[in-house]
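Much of the work behind modern protein science is quiet bookkeeping, done one molecule at a time. Below is the pair of lines this work produces for a single protein:

***
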Amino acid sequence: LEKMTDLVAVWEVALSDGVHKIEFEHGTTSGKRVVYVDGKEEIRREWMFKLVGKETFTVGATKTKAAINIDAVSGFAYEYTLEINGKSLKKYMENRLKTTNTWILNLGGTDYRIVLEKDTMDVWCNGQKMETAGEFVEDGTETHFTVADHSCCIKAVSSGKRKEGIIHTLIVDNREIPEVVE
């Protein structure tokens, strides 16, 4: 079994539908390139004579564009960088912090990861886009949905400060859930 003998890079990427693991094998003698997403083989190339280049693929339910860049650093050393939606992983994650909110909670012994995409107001729970109902309330908006028979609500309220913008709060069974930073 020669699986993963040429593993050169592993990344964890937090998307709305979950945290995905990307693994990359690069055989510098055989020229082999293999990309795994969440343990499933996405790309396999044997006998690549050009050892540098780029492999493109998609990740997750949203089919997010991803690319691994292979660059020669010196001699037979290589550098591997992951891009998500055309941005370096670091830039992508920094941007994601501004465009999404993420909460992790446990209901009845099960962990749930809830993500709000602020630009579309889409709500994701454990990889599934949720059916939501939005309503305007006195101090902002409320987005209602249900997780495992628990009523959930994301309240959006103005912070009153231009720099901070809108504050989103998740309330489950009348209890505020703290946001997590991934």
The chain is about 5% helix and 60% strand.
